[in-house]
């Protein structure tokens, strides 16, 4: 069982290993690689045997388990066992140049579906509730996203604007820096960064947080520099295939979590949100062909 008392969701632990992998030390990555590649045998190993196979000390194994939220090695092994029992069967989702149109469609769809399900398994409900509360109580909300994350930021802006929130979205690094300098107490800065390592975003968060603003990060790396300067972190697993470049599956997973978040905000605001939706709809209804 996790420290928070939560039993793992389907493939939750194996997924979380992949999510936190970039933040692991070199020795911890040896443990992660061994478990991901040989889950069956790793599940049966004692802590001493696993340490020998990975070429690390037992303290590294324990530190690795605690990073995943487990009290000890036995709890970790139990969770891996549950993962392997519940592991879904699926086609190999890595697209090959020789795949025909139908296979590419099948693999892409399967990968997108799995990413959404993986997101459900990594949602921290405590952080989600904190994010909802912060957005509802914000005097103003600044939504930031650079490059492809900028389009996601615009989607968040649109949803919040429709329910009557005081919000703006920025995707230019200089504008982000300047608006972050203006953010203060009762304001919320919401940043979207898959890597969590973008310097412009991290510096904007530092500046806004210093001014008293609440910072919320939507990222694929819970141990990133951005997460470190965030009051609230919403974690979305990221997976990019070699032939994909910027992953649409990651964006789909992000949009799914954002949909959950913004739906909860709308539900909490109740009539205020619904009245704003009606007003904004009436403003454009006569513009429909």
Automatic annotation (TrEMBL):
A biological-process GO annotation: carbohydrate derivative metabolic process
Family matches, as Gene3D superfamilies: Glucose-6-phosphate isomerase like protein, domain 1, Winged helix-like DNA-binding domain superfamily/Winged helix DNA-binding domain
GO molecular function (one): DNA-binding transcription factor activity
Record domain SIS: where: 131-271
Highest taxon, organism lineage: Bacteria
InterPro entries in alphabetical order: Homeodomain-like_sf, HTH_RpiR, RpiR-like, RpiR-like_SIS, SIS_dom, SIS_dom_sf, WH-like_DNA-bd_sf
Chain ranges of the HTH rpiR-type domain: 11-87
Keywords, in A-Z order: DNA-binding, Transcription, Transcription regulation
Protein name per UniProt: MurR/RpiR family transcriptional regulator
Organism this protein belongs to: Paenibacillus antri
């Amino acid at each position: 069982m996790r420290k928070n008392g939560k039993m793992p969701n389907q493939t939750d632990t194996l997924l979380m290993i992949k999510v936190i992998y970039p933040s692991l030390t070199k020795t911890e990555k040896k443990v992660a690689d061994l478990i991901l590649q040989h889950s069956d045998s790793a599940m049966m190993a004692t802590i001493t045997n696993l340490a020998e196979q990975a070429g690390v000390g037992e303290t590294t194994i324990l530190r690795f388990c605690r990073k995943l939220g487990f009290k000890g090695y036995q709890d970790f092994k139990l969770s891996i066992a549950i993962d392997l029992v519940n592991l879904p069967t699926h086609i190999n989702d890595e697209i090959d140049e020789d795949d025909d149109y139908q296979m590419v469609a099948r693999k892409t769809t399967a990968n997108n579906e799995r990413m959404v399900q993986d997101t459900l398994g990594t949602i921290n409900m405590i952080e989600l509730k904190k994010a909802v509360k912060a957005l509802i109580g914000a005097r103003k909300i600044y939504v930031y996203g650079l490059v492809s994350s900028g389009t996601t930021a615009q989607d968040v802006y649109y949803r919040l604007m429709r329910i009557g929130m005081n919000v703006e979205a920025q995707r230019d690094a200089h504008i982000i820096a300047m608006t972050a300098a203006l953010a203060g107490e009762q304001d919320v800065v919401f940043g979207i960064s898959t890597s969590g390592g973008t310097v412009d975003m991290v510096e904007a968060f530092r500046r806004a947080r210093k001014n008293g603003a609440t910072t919320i990060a939507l990222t694929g790396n819970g141990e990133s520099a951005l997460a470190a300067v965030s009051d609230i972190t919403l974690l979305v697993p990221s997976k990019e295939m070699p032939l994909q470049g910027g992953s649409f599956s990651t964006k789909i997973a992000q949009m799914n979590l954002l949909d959950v978040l913004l739906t909860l905000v709308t539900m909490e605001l109740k009539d205020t949100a619904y009245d704003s939706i009606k007003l904004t709809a009436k403003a454009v209804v006569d513009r429909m062909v």
